[in-house]
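Standup notes
- HV: blocked on the assembly model, inputs below
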Amino acid sequence: MAIIAIDLGGTKSSAALMSHNGGIYNRQKTEICKKSGPAVSEIIQKQIKKLIQAAKEGGHHVKAIGVSVPGIFNPDKGEVWAPNIPGWTNYPLGKELEKVSTGIPIFIESDRTCYILGEVWQGNAQDCRNAIFLAVGTGIGAGILVDGKVLHGQSNIAGATGWMALNRIYRQEYKKFGCFEYHASGDGLARVARDLVNSAPDYYGLLRRPLPENITSYDVIEAYDAGDNLAITVINQAIEYWGMAAANYISIFNPEVVIFGGGVFGPAQKFIPLIQKEAERWAQPIAFREAHIEASKIGHEAGLYGAGKLALMEIEKGDKE
Amino acid sequence: MAIIAIDLGGTKSSAALMSHNGGIYNRQKTEICKKSGPAVSEIIQKQIKKLIQAAKEGGHHVKAIGVSVPGIFNPDKGEVWAPNIPGWTNYPLGKELEKVSTGIPIFIESDRTCYILGEVWQGNAQDCRNAIFLAVGTGIGAGILVDGKVLHGQSNIAGATGWMALNRIYRQEYKKFGCFEYHASGDGLARVARDLVNSAPDYYGLLRRPLPENITSYDVIEAYDAGDNLAITVINQAIEYWGMAAANYISIFNPEVVIFGGGVFGPAQKFIPLIQKEAERWAQPIAFREAHIEASKIGHEAGLYGAGKLALMEIEKGDKE
């Protein structure tokens, strides 16, 4: 028995033919190169065709296809809303993929849901029934496991954690991104650094650039490592926000683990001990002692494994019925 | 068919013999009067005996007993931890009540769990599958419904919302209560008012008392109604915190409703429109539009109806097995 797992990101689509225990028989990776609408769907369709062919050649019976999308999936309509893929406002991805799936059932979920499923299957949430994945990339979202099941909310937009209110004095800048995302996402780190540079004409450190709009979160972390004071201010503030958010998840959900992942963690993994220390100040003390705060150990593979786990779970569900 | 519902609070125990749809056949209410340990258990035992007798006389067959406790219930050990009842650190309430229950099964849950169950059954969360009850009394706790089931966490302390981190600059005062509870619980309102009075020697308004430690949250709300500036400052700040907390629940859980209850709501019900306005600034916009923010309409009966619903749910579970 095999499954096909697809992790569609904003810049590339990763796909794999997988065994029931996560072994990878065949892997496909395709850049999206600013394609839009149906062209992105065609990339995935090609990957599915190739992997079905590979399964045939290897003698593997594909029982389900799992797809992780960078946005929200509406299961009632079979439509995807993905803000970073032009033309995917209410995109009928389910129907599109059925054209090439040769009757194999397809299951689609948001990336944040797949991240936590990936951690449950192959990462730091194995054997956990209550676990949180905080995905800190361009934006911030959370995949949440409650008593072994993914939290969806009434219309599949649960986990919109970028909007977590953490800083009582409201600022107009929060209107577009949410408070937590404004300060502590990848874009947020760069944004806060740029604002600080612009308001400090006497600063001539590593983040003073001819074009300040080119500063990235990676630049900020590099400058922090080199001892740049402005970068240290930015990162220390982000650590406060990350710690407060982790604390809130711990106090509300009483989980076994809170996992930090996404592009920023990554290089920000080294801040985990400081995040733990910050979270300890804020969280309910017993719940804090019972919870781990960790960086993802499967990193950028969390979405792919999550798509695989999604397919497996649906197969199991079908077997039970 | 009938059930027995018991709502144990810090100062009294309310008990009722109920029909399957919440009709009340018989009601018992006993003050606890600073009793401790086994004496409190005896009060409940007496209530159970009386209600079993009443059921017999009325020809009702009691199928289950539900009990709401002001603390945490550990179902593995059958023990209750209730900080406001002296001697109830790990109190074996389950076994104690079995002495008088004549074989009728007993189910115990924390008050915050019962509050949300009460709202699902008879209050503002009917037909909801994702709903939050924010209990704002002496302290702050939350009962959380996820996809039709109560959120417990790994060790039954989920919903410790008094610890929600909402104000980035950490203060030592948060260590004992948590940030949200420090500022916006019933005790918090009084505490903040007292601190302001003490630091304003020129203030001679309604909250200037010979013994400032006697100021209560009700006094603060009364003074607000009378236009007292210091009280207005305290309440406006609390509205910010209540709105931020509601927003966080909306962004994370994507629920149908967030219900404010507990002793403070009560008199603070009139602030709901202001809390909605504050929450709107912070919450994920789509999730906000989909969620109601309301005051409990069953008020101080939420725990009693919740204990009843708990009993009913367990009967249904048993019937299915």
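- HV (later): unblocked. Residues 229-253 of chain A form the longest helix (25 residues). Chain A has a mean pLDDT of 95.
- Next: hand off to the docking folks.
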